[in-house]
Amino acid sequence: MTFNRPLKATLILALCAGLAACGGNRSRGVSATAANSAPPGGVELGREGNVETYAKSSIWDVFGPDSGDQTVNVNRYIWAASLDVLNFLPVQSVDPFTGVIITGYGTPPGGGRSYRATVHVRDPALDARSLNLSLQSRNGAVSPATTRAVEDAILARARQLRIRDRKL
Description:
Elements: H1 5-23, H2 32-36, E1 43-45, E2 51-53, H3 76-85, E3 91-95, E4 100-103, E5 115-121, E6 131-137, E7 140-141, H4 144-167
Antiparallel strand pairs: 1-2, 3-4, 4-5, 5-6, 6-7
Helix pairs in contact: 3-4
């Protein structure tokens, strides 16, 4: 099968244009280095905590959930109080968007038993139902009275922080 020269050139140009359209332009409105470092979700937290939005990477991202409208549903007083009360435990993982703090084993001051904690702040309200605490020792689960005492200490500290902010 032979093609004449103008038809061959048109076919090659059409193939090149089709391949160029498949590549996409991710750096629209963003520097080239920032576009290459963008995560697949389309949002990246900067060093100062500001959010920089990037173009989506494929057509299928349009049908997925939009990560640009995320809100933080965590009570800041309970969050800060949890870190304050459990400051003797080494922090292993923190996720302020889901409200989860995971710590490693540590011994409280004046105590001989080591504990680790998982804290889940579920609601933006300053309420006991917003806090879910799980304590564990090296020997297994901790008594419910101990868990309740730590929860009460966190909630009391959260109320103190809120009262202090109101006076400012």
